[in-house]
Structures
1.
Amino acid sequence: MADRYQPLVRYFQKLSRIEHAITFLQWDHMVMMPPRGSEARSKALAELSATYHRRLVSDELGELLQEVEDKTDNPERIASIREMKKVYSRAVCLSSDLVEAKTIAGARCEYQWRQQRNDNDWDGFAGNFREVVKLCREEAQARFARNPDNFATPYDTLLDLHCTGDDSGFIQAVFTRLKRDLPGILEQVLERQRETKRPNLAGEYPVAQQQQLNKNLMLSLGFDFESGRLDVSAHPFSTGCRGDQRITTRYRENDFFDSLLATAHETGHASYENGLPRQYDGLPVGGARNLCLHESQSLLFEKQLLLTRPFLEFFLPVIHRCLPATSHLSAETLWLGATRVAPSLIRVEADEATYPFHVIIRFEIERDLINQQIEIDDIPELWDEKMRRYLGISTGSNFKDGCMQDMHWTDGSFGYFPSYTMGAINSAQFSAAIRLAHPDWQEQLAGGNLDFIRRWLLENIWSVGSTIESQEILQKATGQKTNPDFFLDHLKTRYLDCGY
Amino acid sequence: MADRYQPLVRYFQKLSRIEHAITFLQWDHMVMMPPRGSEARSKALAELSATYHRRLVSDELGELLQEVEDKTDNPERIASIREMKKVYSRAVCLSSDLVEAKTIAGARCEYQWRQQRNDNDWDGFAGNFREVVKLCREEAQARFARNPDNFATPYDTLLDLHCTGDDSGFIQAVFTRLKRDLPGILEQVLERQRETKRPNLAGEYPVAQQQQLNKNLMLSLGFDFESGRLDVSAHPFSTGCRGDQRITTRYRENDFFDSLLATAHETGHASYENGLPRQYDGLPVGGARNLCLHESQSLLFEKQLLLTRPFLEFFLPVIHRCLPATSHLSAETLWLGATRVAPSLIRVEADEATYPFHVIIRFEIERDLINQQIEIDDIPELWDEKMRRYLGISTGSNFKDGCMQDMHWTDGSFGYFPSYTMGAINSAQFSAAIRLAHPDWQEQLAGGNLDFIRRWLLENIWSVGSTIESQEILQKATGQKTNPDFFLDHLKTRYLDCGY
Ligand SMILES: [Zn+2]
Ligand SMILES: [Zn+2]
């Protein structure tokens, strides 16, 4: 009997080569391309995406998937076929008309948003956004109709694209705990920090020097420059493939620490990708599990490694060497400067203690919007009301620093936001497990030794790929599912007990 | 009646988008990619090339081309269809087995050549090279069999891929003139230069300073950084698409002029590409005509613009500003240093007066090799004999600086070499026409004004694309076909009369 699995493997490997092309052409677009290259690049990317989509939804693949024997007793193969079917069925349940309409509406809404946000023009934005929401509701309905048993609500089908495996009920339960316990902690932290002045880390830090510093940080965090690059872009991001992980950061002449944090963050994302199981290269089962885990890796590198006192002690001489203007700064000063907490309007500038509320607001609004519990016109008031309730500040009619501040919704990326806070919780939970297994973790970090951490992550998360579901990964690695207590404990230790 | 031309236009535009992806992924491979990215990249490029080839030789395209009415009285459309048919017929006349075998044999031969050349290992090289030549002869025979009326010899079919429109008989006639008249000129030049010492341009020139200098040169030559980039690679090259022309150069800490020449050269290539007719974007008729013209543009920028006394006078202050270590150098010293002539073994290091002989040797040998007049084992002796006859130096058994020095043959790129010297002649011929039309050209260059040159090139060459044949372009622009007299006159003026 012919093996019906191997043709599938070859099919997906070929698909992954088109994906490779799209990945690096997009990277080039963001990082290298001169402005006038944009017309030809957009057309090339559209052609490749269409080729990719056409091959993914082809009858040929559908038949291969139907014929394959998934009742084998080889668990690896069962997992691989399960993930293949997931990718295929996510793609076929949408008509190409809907996909195209969403692409066009999303691109227009995002493009005009840049100016509209600037102008605080909510009405103008709402005009375009209405079409995006309409199409995303259609998308959610179509996905829901195809798999009514798998999803609790239409919104869950969009959530599943980003937070695969963590449904809206589970996330709601986690967030409810945060809403209950975080305000009290936050109040104490603010009270506590009122006693001390924020240290001033500003200075003149030439970009070339910062570049050197950031590369050194990546080396210290275990990044391999034979398998990746560091470049500059307006918004830090990471992308690539095995052996070629590319991250970006941005530099400000008067602030070096922000860019260090961004670089540590993206190094975490890149480390996950480079640690994925080699034997499944090109197959869905070899991909990162979901964004809640992806973000847990980046936040672990950013908040649980770089931003600890022992690691900063270790890294301080490198900072002094690369940036002579920092010679008067101690590790403790850096730590104090980078761990200030203050409620504010803008999510991307929020500290780790207030960030969850920014996410919860978005989660609650987008869920109800997609599930047709609320309408677009309700958003500004809901936003203001939730901001006042959770963070004690009002946005009023300052839409540009309120409900218009993020890009995510403009092109219809609903279901993405929860991963930020799920990732923060997961990262605290993983760190707790690692520290429990390595009680000398502070000495290790102070000596610049992070191998034990990378090994733990490789074994428990990276090399697992998508062979099991996300909460199984949490369970196996930490003994329980995503549990906000770890995150709350982390905040208490760092901000109230002044530990690490 | 339905228009049968538009579907063809759309078909080729789609093909050009796959080409776009290949172009920029290859650029990235050469310029940006970390070493470990190479495995995934090679697979992605192979997949894209296969996709491109499959779509190009498809029955669908064959039928579209058969059905299209090319007896229209619209000359633009006639030209466009002619070029489409040329691209298609070049691709379909080879079996995919032959294409694949050639790719594999070429890759192996090129890869091992790097070490074999180092080891002066002719026998080892000949082993791999035999397979490459065998397959290229098959290729030439297959192309010849399909179009026996269009080509004089099998070699002409390979020549046609690079020097499209300039056949081996025509090139032979041009080269015969050079073989007759160049030796006498060369002898006089050497005699004349014996009187003077070569000025020493060596010094310490930091790469960052050189980078700034090279960018300034590109700006002076009319390069638009909104439509392109300058980067670094082991061997300078240029590639890209409309609006995104990317050139590379290389830097040596002790020599700045070589990298300037390379940058001017590649700026010429990029200017041609960016000047191609916009209305034919994505269509074969909108492409550069052939390499004899492409190389004429690069050599014109390198030898007829940068390397003239008036331009160097204009540019000297920029050199002094960017490279303080050059402050003692005058424009005349630079010019004298960069216009030294001396027969030598290595083509890529040859001056413009001896370069043609390096090309003639290769042309005569590769032609006879593909047409089965000689065999691989004859090459070393022929090389030595021709080097002695044309340049008065013997290679003997120094194969690595003799017949093993170039990469071109290793992967079967026969028919490429002649374009270097045809390009040099064309560039002298175009310059003569421009100078005749602008008798004040030296004052213009001394003022840094090159607009009149770019305008002439745009009108006469760049914007013509492939709408007419190469020698028609020469005829229209200069009143005659490629004529070596212009090149010989250029050498006499520059090296004997000590003009410009
Ligand atoms: Zn992230
Ligand atoms: Zn060239």
2.
Amino acid sequence: MSVVINIDRLMGRIFELGKIGALAGGGCKRLALTPEDAAGRALVTDWFHALGLEVHRDVIGNTWAIRPDSTGRTDGAPVVMGSHIDTVGTGGLYDGVLGVLGGLEVIESLNDAGIETERPIAVAFFTNEEGARFAPDMMGSGVIQGQLDLDEMLATIGIDGITVGAALDAIGARGNEPVGALAPAAYLELHIEQGPVLEAEGLAIGVVTGVQGISWTEFVIEGASAHAGTTPMTMRRDAGMVAAAIALEARAIARDFGPPQVATVGRMEFAPDLVNVVPERATLTVDLRHTDETVLQQAQARLFARAEELAAQEHCTLARRRLARFEPVNFDPDLVEQVAQSATRLNLSYRRMPSGAGHDAQMFAPNCPSGMIFVPSRDGISHNITEFTAPEQIVPGVTLLAEVALARAGYAQNQG
Amino acid sequence: MSVVINIDRLMGRIFELGKIGALAGGGCKRLALTPEDAAGRALVTDWFHALGLEVHRDVIGNTWAIRPDSTGRTDGAPVVMGSHIDTVGTGGLYDGVLGVLGGLEVIESLNDAGIETERPIAVAFFTNEEGARFAPDMMGSGVIQGQLDLDEMLATIGIDGITVGAALDAIGARGNEPVGALAPAAYLELHIEQGPVLEAEGLAIGVVTGVQGISWTEFVIEGASAHAGTTPMTMRRDAGMVAAAIALEARAIARDFGPPQVATVGRMEFAPDLVNVVPERATLTVDLRHTDETVLQQAQARLFARAEELAAQEHCTLARRRLARFEPVNFDPDLVEQVAQSATRLNLSYRRMPSGAGHDAQMFAPNCPSGMIFVPSRDGISHNITEFTAPEQIVPGVTLLAEVALARAGYAQNQG
């Protein structure tokens, strides 16, 4: 048997959640632990309660809702379907949200069909997956899976100068459940691809084999401010010029190493940031990603070495800070195989592929069988208000999620 | 005879004005038409009144105070000593202020000595010389000398989104005198060099022969925001990379053209400015300066052409906006000669030199004999809280200013 999901109900919830923090022209902005995020959490939690699920919240705001097993118990290790509901500053309606509301739809569809399972099934959303306000990203899942330190993360200061702990309390999102309270029997995450591959190849499903490694570095260059007209070029210590040169070096690294190496300079800031003053300080971030840890380390080493050289040439000082670092992750081969076979059984076209983006699933991978399902992103666009996946592209993903979740949770033979 | 100035009185005023908008570590921030600027204007205007001078303020907030001629009249064309009291965001105590308070000291010294003149002598400060909040710089003097349009300038929007007109009214700095009300017989400006030349050569005075040409351009590059991990490098339209490349091109232009060509990228901004998002928009400014208009035009042409190429290579759009453009200015040869001869007469070591920075004096140059006097800047540093010129370096400058002003105003023979 396979579960029949209600796409209209699911789309209705996606659009209703999308109204919170909505941006002109579409998309939305719900940076982690802001009032917008708080409103989103409240709405989704209300939906959890409406289905009579047992809702839990832990010390860093991760929230999950458990559907009991066929004996009515909720204390067994659950099959968890999860993702996140926070967004970047120019986010879309589907990134993260699809995995959470898709999981909720799976549970409601099981209820509608009167299907019970041998294990509990849970749906969850994790705090600050995007890392747009607080670095590193995947913070909530990283903490409860033992890959990030709770106290260190609570003390992390965001781009607006507020700590995670203070932000949690400001919106009342800090729960009581301790780190480790959520221990899944298996973890499944449905997500939009956020890349152009599936659309380009006309495929319905991406069976995700793993996640590429990520290296986020912030560079702060200190020089000397000086008058733009009277200071000879030879006497300058221009922090901005060093920052610009490091940005172009990052691009050169991606070019020289070739795919799948990518490099991105997303943030750049000059101080005092005035037209006629040589910048005394410049700050920039470099995001490096590769599926091979060895290559990623080589890219990082070249970037750090060249940055030092470029700063020295301009007689500037360079400070380097690691914002995030994740090694490439391989998902459980059996679970990956099960997702592929289920896709075949449902007659869904698919390909195996690594994820180009970081996801909460990679935090669970070391501790329990974990896997991901991708559906296409129009034009490969994400982290943008034009992010879009059509309802008819969502149906196969949620149906496959239900199929795999049901298989992992165990169809209870003694159905009422 | 030569005028004896009171350096303690002058330094006292410089330090008192410096307390307004004072920054930790020294220096101050009095951006044009802010509450800090308003407080500075009020203090200096009180000093004008305290000397019984006739105070005037025009429609863009320029303020001047007239000392009557020997017949008690103030309607004759005055010899004007002026500069500005606004600062950049990380300004010092002397840039601009020295020319205004130095002029005030000259007038009080003439009073103390009972010296009367055939022409009135005036001291003035002009609105928004720095251009740090509103572009272009030298706005107040530019408007009243017919080089900038009043209505256009009043409608100019600052970095904080407020127009010049609104800012004037917000601090009550808009006066009644029309454009052109101030028509000097001669214009004299005492200023710190803001460069390293005089100190390096151990000279007391810079006899300024003119001002180098200035070209300020703002570039806005539009690309497409995209996910930093899943978007192949070949599919990116990264506005930030174009901005970084334009910044390095500006540096290359200064290198290839050689001194006195200078190029500065003082402002740089990315949007959305997030670690894991390819920037969809980048804004930067380029400040080009040269003493030769022909060369400056060549530098500008190369910058504009390369910027277009760099944007096209990344499939981004480029918008260019002129923030300021001034041709090189030559000061009145007779006045320059008179400053040099007066320096010789006072046994002051000096050299003739162009100004590397823009000054209000260049706005007056086309309409009346205008000239400038430089005193050394420690380490050539300006637009920085460590900007410094010692009292013993200021005395020669103010004494020379008095000498030249008195010669131009005409020593009245019928003294008391």
3.
Amino acid sequence: MATIFDIGVSAGFNVLTAIAFLLAFAFLRLQPINDRVYFPKWYLRGMRDSPISSGAAVNKFVNLDARSYLKFLNWMPAALKMPQDELINHAGLDSVVYLRIYLTGLKIFVPITVLAFLVLVPVNWTNDTLERMNVVHADIDKLSISNVPNGSKRFIAHLAMAYAITFWTCYVLMREYEIIAKLRLRFLASEKRRPDQFTVLVRNIPPDPDESTSELVEHFFLVNHPDHYLRHQVVYNANKLSDFVEKKKKMQNWLDYYRLKYERNVSQRPTTKTGFLGCFGSTVDAIDYYKSEIEKIGKEEAEERKKVMKDPKSVVPSAFVSFRSRWGAAVCAQTQQTSNPTVWLTEWAPEPRDVYWNNLSIPFVSLTVRRLIVAVAFFFLNFFYIIPITLVQSLANLEGIEKALPFLKPLIELPFIKSFIQGFLPGIVLKIFLIVLPSILMFMSKFEGLISQSSLERRSAAKYYIFLFFNVFLGSVVAGSALEQLKIYLHTSANDIPRIIGDSIPMKATFFITYVMVDGWAGVAGEILRPVALVIFHLKNFFLVKTEKDREEAMDPGSICFNINEPRIQLYFLLGLVYAAVTPFLLPFILVFFGFAYVVYRHQIINVYNQQYESAGQFWPSVHGRVITALIISQLLLLGLMSTNDFAQSTPVLLVLPVLTFWFYKYCKHRYEPAFVRNPLQEAMRKDTLERAREPNFDLKAYLANAYLHPVFKGGEHEDDRYSVLDDEAWMGEEVIVPTKRQSRRTTPAQSRQDGGGSDTVSVPETLHEHRPI
Amino acid sequence: MATIFDIGVSAGFNVLTAIAFLLAFAFLRLQPINDRVYFPKWYLRGMRDSPISSGAAVNKFVNLDARSYLKFLNWMPAALKMPQDELINHAGLDSVVYLRIYLTGLKIFVPITVLAFLVLVPVNWTNDTLERMNVVHADIDKLSISNVPNGSKRFIAHLAMAYAITFWTCYVLMREYEIIAKLRLRFLASEKRRPDQFTVLVRNIPPDPDESTSELVEHFFLVNHPDHYLRHQVVYNANKLSDFVEKKKKMQNWLDYYRLKYERNVSQRPTTKTGFLGCFGSTVDAIDYYKSEIEKIGKEEAEERKKVMKDPKSVVPSAFVSFRSRWGAAVCAQTQQTSNPTVWLTEWAPEPRDVYWNNLSIPFVSLTVRRLIVAVAFFFLNFFYIIPITLVQSLANLEGIEKALPFLKPLIELPFIKSFIQGFLPGIVLKIFLIVLPSILMFMSKFEGLISQSSLERRSAAKYYIFLFFNVFLGSVVAGSALEQLKIYLHTSANDIPRIIGDSIPMKATFFITYVMVDGWAGVAGEILRPVALVIFHLKNFFLVKTEKDREEAMDPGSICFNINEPRIQLYFLLGLVYAAVTPFLLPFILVFFGFAYVVYRHQIINVYNQQYESAGQFWPSVHGRVITALIISQLLLLGLMSTNDFAQSTPVLLVLPVLTFWFYKYCKHRYEPAFVRNPLQEAMRKDTLERAREPNFDLKAYLANAYLHPVFKGGEHEDDRYSVLDDEAWMGEEVIVPTKRQSRRTTPAQSRQDGGGSDTVSVPETLHEHRPI
């Protein structure tokens, strides 16, 4: 039970931390040497040059202009100045839609805060329940619902407030959904020609004894989409090859490092050890060693590359099929191809840079099994993660360390270090787990078999939100690990669960206020400072960078990290909605978070982040869905809270809200979600028609030629020669004869019975093709 | 606690009832006068003539051949004889798939029964728990799980049995799904040309200020499906008109009735009263009165017909759009047309006879609101229906009747009648409710806005199943109305609900055995007798029938009534799966039901029922889903039962089953359901190609001309003259110029901003159409 003074101290401390971060940022960003850490986006867009290449020597590294330090907050208005349309051009729609999450937070919570302070604070304050009850309480508890006597008629104000919150939130959400759907459609409509507009990803191509995958794809689409099929690109299983490429690159880095070292100190040739991490094994000359290693790997790589290109087994049963028009691609992506729904699965191809290549070859049955495994694994991770953590914590105590590493004993026995270890080690184990958690969730999503980076991030975000909800929100409210909660949920009636949770909601307000300040305020300020990126850049700069190109590569602009950041924002939505009718005092803290984070992320998006893909805001439906979830949870918890306050008459009145909210969710899903999933034919046709009128002679086939080649094949020297042969044929002509290898079957009258339609596909129409012009 | 003797008596009684029904049926069906009641299907197929038109006078009505009475069961082998393929031709795929539900029941439960009797009965029987506990128990309880002592290792047998049941059921279900999917695909592939193969239903056509709905549809599809669009049929709001037609028909019936009466007794002209039900009002000459009434309605009808055809307001914003090829229709049905997903909604057109015309004009927002209303209403119906029933029951007591109808008092006061009313009236009120319940559910589904009879029946079946599950199954087990159950569910923990229900499962075995015999055995035998249809046919035959055509109309073959019968079968699946591991003694009774019902319904389908539509087994996914639901429920209840028997170690072992079963459900949904929902392009293309090769000059446009006209317009005399104009244009030619009324906008450079794409549709490509040949 913190007093307002306690909160004030905590707030002061966090504000000071945030200001310290901001000052450090203001100082560091003005140093030219950090320019690539704080403005990489502009370098990537080619609109900024290295300051090192021009000007005086000192000015290259340190900013000596004293005046520029005075205005340490002047990045803020600059960040807000760029208009939305320009920002879409600059950073893509994903970033803009991501920023709108913060804006939505502001739009929802500013009026709610005002209303809550006008209505609920006086209603709560003018009671004396807490004083009469003589419970230990803080001033801020007088502002909360706990101060209203049980069964009081004043609860009607809270009920009305719950209705106001629900309707206002739904209204804002709907408006936002509408705006973003329009933004997305306008963005898609105004986009230039892009390979993915014409391309469909076909998965689970059935094996065929007579034809190669490539021939099969060609025949299938020539028969079933005769007027629209243009070309296709088979997918190679180049996972091993890209491992080689990766390894070679790492070796090259080491070679560069040792060369640089040698240059700086010519007297001594650097040495390294051949074993693990360069720590064990025999000592060798480093430069020679890495040179020979690179040569070896280079050979292996070339061999693997040859093998992949020649061996039909390295072609996975997936292909990128391109069409003559967007209309044809839209049709193919949205329809089912054969009567067996597990083969010839078509979907929109992701952008080439968005494709997650490793998952393209997973067959259908395996996919469903993987989904089951991940679901079960995630359930255990969510509810039982505390068990291994406790285990590790119990092992990672002083005695354990002393036994494992006895030479550390004298050091550990020092009283200061001893208490430090005992106090922090368990916390650090947990912290490490929480830091690697997003990577674990991302690994799970990858294992599930999703085929684009964007969908991987969306799926991971959903998992992370569930984890945060149970382990951070409910874990703090019910004060127990998710495992203990699970027991409560199983052993408590459906009626009592919201009551138990709702009852402890008001008491946790101060905890969450502190949480918002530490995680929200200071955390966001830390984001703008980018300490990790700063350190890594300078390390790389010192050890590896020789040329301008190296410096370019050392730069790590990062990205929004939707899978980590969005679920965290959702936690603030949840806190705001839950506490709006209970302890309105929490709302201003959340408002500050949304406002501050909006400015910071806008700045980062303009100056730093470089998105790896563009999904045109495809994640909005899940953002929307999670805010709705938070709203429904807040309604249920208020219901529980009211029923403990002897105001059970409210139950039917409040029960209407979740029903209406759920209906609203369904309505929005039907109304807006298709715009984020499917591609309308009208739009496709309009674009096709306009384009055909503008550029009637555009060579689409050449344009699409290498768009969906695996990245390791790109670079020119290893062109796929089989496709150059195919290119020579007169594809664009109308009179296409389907070549087939099934000569022997022409005399067989019965159709082949093979399932999956692979052979049936061609065997019927091939005769027709011979007898009549299409 | 019934003994085996009690059950034997009950079984004997029910078997006797069933045999009595069968004997009555055997006798009645042999009478030529009943021929149209028991063999209408053959009349409808034109393969049987009225026996009345030939032979001796007596033979027309009564069968005098004594030998034919001896073989009173000889319809059974006859019913089983017809092979499946012939049955598909005779009665359609829906009927065959419906029969497979019973077959599936047999396939699931025959091996389970054998296994249960081999394994569980000895395990249960060789204990003496019940005897030692000195509880009152029956012999059959010794066969049930109650006889195994708490915590006994013998429960392992039950666990193993649960696993065996799960895997066997899933295996049978998957096989069945596969078979039925194949049947469906083969059926669709072998079907003759049908209008719905080429037609798509378009709903929510946005209003347009410049063009009529018909013109708008034409433009939209000429622009967006230029190579495939053929013609369209707008939908008229003819609900009022069909009311008139209906009324006229009823009047005609009365006229016929009085004419017949007059013919039989020429001395006296029949009279009627003009008021309500012919009971009140002034007396008039009946024949003249109805003649004039018919004339009046005929005039009104003609006027309404004219109005509907001329008034653009009577055109609802829906249309049936036909394409040149199945491929074109398949594409249009599966894709989204515009960026606004609430307009231009396309889906496969139902068969013309399957269309539910009244719902075609409901707009999108209204649909979602209606769905909410129905969901809430159904929730209340399901859990609170007992309240109005109790209310009516309390009103419909003796005093109430005496007050309302005082002249009945002396009659009611008779002791016999008094006790009869007091004993039966409350039961009758409930029974009446249960009889009208399917109609209420059907009304709800209609209100929801579904657009085909088949989907209406499927939706009603889902609702009915939920009702039966809560009010019959759980109502009998937990022994309380659904309302009381709701309280239990809300106030009991998630852990305890299966425990409470599971605990009382074994005790209810005898009750459900009786239920199976009464509802299953006797009920099915009653179905074959068709008493209601028999009575109504003879009443109509006596009062209305003059000509052979009248007799044809008096015949009511009925149909399967999927919405009523399927949920009832599902109850037997549920009972069988729940009791398989608990009281295997129940299983033989269920087996008898499935076997007997299979024969009876096969007979009825061959000889009686006339399906109103053909959905090609589209209902199977929901049948499959409900059996899976029953399986999961049975697993959860066994889990609860085990935990009360001190065998809690079993919980994790049993918890695996629902997870696996649910995963199996998801797998099947992905694997097989698309075959029941979407239409693969490959199949469409293959059929198109074959057909084009066989009949290159077929006039598809003429074939489709009136396929989707509202039934009241059919009959020739009231042909839609606007369409004959359209027909004259040279549609089949390739060079289509899109006519438009938007002359004024051609000079406007900016696109119109109107939402929904209505005007955008044409305004961009119209200029293109003028400048270049497509």
